[in-house]
Amino acid sequence: xxxxxxxxxVLDDRPKLxxxxxxxxxxxxxxxVTLSTMGDFQSKWQANRLAAxxxxxxxx
Length: 60
Hints:
Blueprint: H1 2-7, H2 15-59
């Protein structure tokens, strides 16, 4: 999205706005990817802890 904003000719007369919108769009993309990754990591971590607990119960 940031690349699209930089490519738009509609904002050529306002370069500061164009750069600010591109930076905000790139930041939002990074935040969304980070949140998505964290959620997936948490579910995998919980599954790992459950499996480890089950294995400990089998040993004893």
